[in-house]
Amino acid sequence: MPTTIQLDATQPTDVEKAAGLLRAGHLVAVPTETVYGLAADASNDQAVRKVFGAKQRPVGHPLIVHLASPGRISLWVDPVPQNAMDLIQAFWPGPLTLLLPKKPGVSDFITGGNPGVAVRMPSHPATLAIMDTLGRDLVAPSANPYGRISPTTAEHVLAGLSGKIDAVVDGGDCSVGIESTIVDLTGDTPVIARPGHVAQNDIEACLGTTLAPGQGVNQAVPGSVKRHYQPVTPTVGVASERMTRLLPELTPTGEKVGVIWWHSPPGERAYESIMLSADPHEYARMLYTAMHAIDTTTVDRIVIELPPREKRWLAVHDRLTRACTEQFA
Ligand code: TXA
Ligand code: MG
């Protein structure tokens, strides 16, 4: 079991240290704009395999390859279609992952044996600097134990993976707060395989095409299981307009309930309360941090007030559906 050391993203010597550990085949959690990633040298199969052990993630769930520059895509993808170039031009570096035909020779440990490989260029300067120093690309799933809430701070990473990874690079709070949008470009038409900060409208505007409606939760993405992103505490979702009536029912005498409010003022029945935001991006930025915070209190149950069922809340609802064991929509 390694002792997990803490590195500081603002210190060049720590960036060097992180790159050195990765070069030696060790696991280092790194900040990205979406969530913290559990990084390993993508060119080292032994290092890639360690990722599955540390996260307790089933082998066969493929990993996203993180690139230091758009040009490195040709090491992993062949051919690179024009629509991929257009999306890269518009959204990289940033929270957009592209699923593309893999180049022969790309490791099955990375792709789970799929014909496609997922690639993205993150925007956090420290992680870009680490990759530049290393001169290689990184696989990086979210740095949480399998099925649990993704980490948006270095403390979250340590709470879940301390002793299982070699280092965490503290780069502050993640600015997006939920995982990247995944667009599958391997079929006849682009498909959003995982909704995120980059919305369907943004993709459509860039490509000049309309994507089929209702896409967004594609079970074809292997890690896209229904129960995911879950707090340890039992968690239910309740539609905003049903909160007043249902909260007392969901609060049996003697039980402590923690509520994550959408943006209504906290009600007095809750033992712990966190208020999020009426803005979907701001809500997404705060969501996992709120879930981690309330999950570490002594509450017996978590109630999440659900935002409206509108298109702009799609990415948030995708995560809430998986986080909650039950929803009263
Ligand atoms: O924002 C993000 O994407 C974060 C940060 C760290 O970059 N990473 C992340 O990785 O969310 P992970 O492993 O937690 O989720 C990646 C998703 C999984 O659902 C996986 O199945 C899918 O991407 N995926 C990766 N490679 C794939 C492939 N070759 N074929 C199909 N799905 C793939
Ligand atoms: Mg994940």
From TrEMBL:
It is found in: Cytoplasm. GO terms for molecular function: ATP binding; double-stranded RNA binding; L-threonylcarbamoyladenylate synthase; tRNA binding. SUPFAM superfamilies: YrdC/RibB. Its EC number is 2.7.7.87. One of its GO terms (cellular component) is cytoplasm. The keyword Oxidoreductase does not apply. L-threonine binds at T34, H66, R120, A140, S142, S180. Keywords: ATP-binding, Cytoplasm, Nucleotide-binding, Nucleotidyltransferase, Transferase, tRNA processing. InterPro entries: DHBP_synth_RibB-like_a/b_dom (IPR017945), Sua5-like_dom (IPR006070), Sua5/YwlC_C (IPR038385), Sua5_C (IPR005145), T(6)A37_SUA5 (IPR010923), TC-AMP_synthase_SUA5 (IPR050156). ATP binds at R57, S150, R194, Y229. One of its GO terms (biological process) is tRNA processing. Residues 12-198 form the YrdC-like domain. It is an enzyme of class 2 (transferase). It catalyses: L-threonine + hydrogencarbonate + ATP = L-threonylcarbamoyladenylate + diphosphate + H2O. Its main location: cytoplasm. Belongs to the SUA5 family. Required for the formation of a threonylcarbamoyl group on adenosine at position 37 (t(6)A37) in tRNAs that read codons beginning with adenine. This is Threonylcarbamoyl-AMP synthase. It comes from Tamilnaduibacter salinus.
